[in-house]
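ARCHIVE RECORD
Type: protein–small molecule complex
Small molecule: zinc ion
Source of inputs: curated submission
Record status: active
Notes field left blank by submitter.
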Amino acid sequence: MPLKTLKYTLSLVKPEFATSQKGKRLIKMGAYTFRLQGVTHDRARWCCSTHNSKGCNAAVHTINDQLVHIKNVHNH
Ligand SMILES: [Zn+2]
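STRUCTURE (tokenized, with ligand):
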């Protein structure tokens, strides 16, 4: 399977929870990193790390560190 296809095949992308050098929580999925944007009730929203610099709208939502929503489409 070409790498480009792999990127968008969600079932093959395993999210990894990590901590940045500044102590912020991150999710790494393949080549992309998501930053915690906010938490509403139990639902945490994570946006692509280039959301601010490139306007990428990819995002994931988690509840208790379980992925409940993934929009893993990037503009970069
Ligand atoms: Zn992105």
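CURATOR ANNOTATION: The two ends are 20 Å apart (CA to CA).
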